[in-house]
């Protein structure tokens, strides 16, 4: 009998594999005022490598004037301990960045441009057409060198300066990169403007059009819709999500930007829903608890504060007295 109900609704994962890709050391740290010492970045990436994450965006090979917090990209990328099975990627804005990233043995270049003309100019100082031309050359260089290429389209769900960005604009830019033979496309909600219905529509359209291109969804939790958007994406066929440890992050060139969806919160929620993230949550939380010491302030993560759902608390110190008094009331009444 067809009840009209989805046989595998979003809240019952039935063991479906969902890949989590950590972006805290790039999207997170790029926005921090404090410079996290290079050896601490390396130690953090090494800790993250051991948690079962599929991919780690280690750093960005951007101009050190634009993103001073990540000016040590080469050393970090070279000195991390590579764990087989984990893809180590880095954000790359231009040819200079690509050469540096390839030289430092980056597994995957994450090229970036915006689906919004205004944000592209603000962030990358180029029109979208100029960015595309430059990135086409970068993609060719990477392909010649046998390095994988992913393209992140910022503001795919809206631009903080222009407003809505049309689905046809997003799909049109994605098509141009797919035609270049890139391995993956990331649709980024740079400033938390995405909402579930929109996420479902864009995810379905993308999966349908390019079933063999790796699709990643990248949400910021700016308006509290992060987890809802992840679930809407999963229901519409997505199985890869960027997330940041502690929920830190945000684009320094996007007004009002705040952190990504928080990795440990997404893992915690998806595990309860019977999805297979492959991530050791206890280890992830332990890594996250080191963050405030590195960045010098609190972070959005709720799970590191509240604990997991069944991390129970001790009963009050006077619990036995409370119980004895309560039971004594029964004796008096009967
Ligand atoms: N790595 C290292 N240095 C770089 C570089 C790179 N990838 N790209 C540019 N530079 C240097 C140039 O060598 C030049 O240095 P100089 O002044 O000592 O000669 C300087 O930066 C300016 O170069 P130019 O090509 O004029 O770039 P720009 O000033 O127009 O900056 C970007 C363009 C995109 C490279 C720069 O703004 C940038 O890196 N932005 C980061 C964007 C970002 O990561 N945003 C957040 C993530 S979405
Ligand atoms: Zn982002």
What is this structure, in a nutshell?
The protein has 334 residues and is of the alpha/beta class. 41% of the residues lie in helices and 14% in strands. It has one domain (19-333): TIM Barrel (Alpha-Beta Barrel), CATH 3.20.20.
Would you write up a description of this structure?
- This protein has 334 residues and is α/β, with parallel strands linked by helices.
- The chain has a single domain, classed as Aldolase class I (TIM Barrel, Alpha-Beta Barrel), CATH 3.20.20.70.
- Helices cover 41% and strands 14% of the residues.
- α8 links the parallel β6 and β7 (214-219).
- α2 crosses α3 (73-79), α8 (196-209) runs parallel beside α9 (226-235) and α10 runs antiparallel to α11.
- The N and C termini lie far apart (54 Å).
- 46% of the residues are buried.
- Mean pLDDT is 94; it is low at 1-5.
- It binds coenzyme A and zinc ion (ZN).
Topology:
Blueprint: E1 19-22, H1 24-28, H2 38-49, E2 55-60, H3 73-79, E3 87-92, H4 95-103, E4 108-114, H5 117-124, H6 128-144, E5 148-154, H7 167-179, E6 184-189, H8 196-209, E7 214-219, H9 226-235, E8 240-243, H10 263-272, H11 281-288, H12 291-295, H13 303-306, H14 319-333
Parallel strand pairs: 1-2, 1-8, 2-3, 3-4, 4-5, 5-6, 6-7, 7-8
Helix pairs in contact: 2-3, 8-9, 10-11
Bound molecules: coenzyme A and zinc ion.
